[in-house]
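Title: Comparing notes on inverse folding

I've been comparing how different people in this forum approach sequence design from structure. To keep things fair, I'm posting one structure and asking everyone to reply with a full sequence. Here's the target:
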């Protein structure tokens, strides 16, 4: 289960809401009163068709878990591996990876509005404008183009490799390929022509990207789990020139496996998860957890901001309305996980139980 509009991040982060936590209304939509909150994409167990969506309302401190989409008023299951979600013009686009589909639902009622299917292994959606969106695909050599208004597939972009994270900056989209032991490219796509116009080589297995307040593109690579250094790279999006590279392996040790890069609302700070091989019981050492980094920093942070401890940190999202931090703990990937909500200073605000393998966050701002 491999797991961010002129400035759009689509790392699996975006938006929506829901009301109480009573069992009898678990499948209802967010409603008019829940104007702000966070959807959690619970991936479920691979091949068991038990993905789910949770919604947390931080103002009321209530959570609704395992609610379904509604078709003609009746709930139906999310599918196999809820990878990511993005909201556009009141529509939730939920990418269901192993089912090869994107379900489109009403952001307030959960009512089924349509779907985009026939995909191989979809990962993340980037909305370019009201009539164009891209969806990356891990095991396809093409990016699929669709119309977010009509939900019609309108074309493909031949990349030649599978694609993972995608962001839009101005008139261009940037996507990275996550291909085990060989993927090390970031591609620049002209959104007017849907053609690749440039590419740049980074460290192996770039898995997430973010854009800072200066419009710089940041790329996080895990280094293929020790095949080479895991790195954080800053790129000039106009020229694709690499401006700076930070070695996460050198800073935090061999076995470092960073993921889930994202920026705060101001674009002046970056956040990412790092897991570093350690000792039993969970084979995680003291360098594992959430890291915060100023975009002007000349070196990686020396200390972890939020230590993982014995938890298996799996998902990370920054609420753009208040810069609070959401982290998911996947536990053993077989039972319901936990979401931890922190203030921007790293103090714990609340925790709640989500579904199995919570991995993606999508924020509803109104």
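Reply #1:
Here's my take.
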């Amino acid at each position: 289960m491999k797991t961010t509009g002129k400035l759009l991040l689509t790392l699996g982060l975006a938006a929506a809401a829901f009301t109480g936590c009573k069992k009898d209304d678990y499948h209802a939509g967010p409603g008019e009163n829940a104007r702000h909150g966070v959807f959690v994409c619970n991936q479920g167990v691979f091949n068991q068709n038990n993905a789910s969506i949770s919604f947390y309302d931080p103002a009321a401190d209530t959570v609704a878990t395992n609610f379904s989409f509604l078709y003609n008023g009746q709930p139906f299951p999310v599918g196999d591996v809820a990878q990511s979600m993005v909201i556009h013009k009141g529509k939730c686009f939920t990418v269901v990876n192993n089912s090869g589909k994107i379900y489109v639902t009403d952001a307030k009622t959960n009512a089924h509005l349509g779907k985009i299917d026939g995909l191989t292994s979809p990962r993340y959606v980037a909305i370019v404008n009201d009539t164009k969106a891209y969806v990356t695909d891990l095991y396809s050599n093409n990016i699929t183009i669709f119309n977010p208004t009509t939900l019609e597939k309108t074309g493909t972009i031949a990349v030649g490799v599978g694609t993972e994270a995608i962001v839009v900056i101005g008139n261009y989209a940037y996507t990275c390929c996550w291909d085990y032991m060989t993927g090390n490219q970031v591609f620049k796509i002209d959104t007017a022509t849907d053609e690749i116009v440039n590419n740049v080589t980074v460290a192996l297995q770039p898995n997430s990207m973010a854009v800072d307040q200066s419009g710089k593109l940041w790329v996080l690579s895990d280094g293929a789990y020790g095949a080479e250094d895991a790195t954080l790279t800053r790129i000039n999006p106009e020229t694709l020139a690499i401006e700076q590279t930070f070695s996460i392996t050198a800073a935090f040790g061999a076995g470092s496996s960073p993921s889930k890069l994202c920026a705060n609302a101001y674009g002046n700070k970056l956040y990412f998860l790092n897991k570093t091989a350690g000792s039993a019981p969970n084979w995680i050492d003291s360098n594992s957890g959430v890291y915060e980094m100023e975009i002007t920093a000349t070196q990686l942070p020396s200390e972890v901001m939020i230590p993982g401890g014995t938890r298996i940190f799996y998902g990370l999202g920054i609420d753009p309305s208040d810069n609070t931090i959401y982290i998911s703990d996947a536990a053993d990937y077989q039972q319901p996980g936990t979401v931890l909500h922190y203030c921007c200073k790293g103090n714990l605000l609340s925790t709640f139980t989500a579904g199995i393998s919570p991995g993606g966050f999508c924020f509803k701002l109104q």
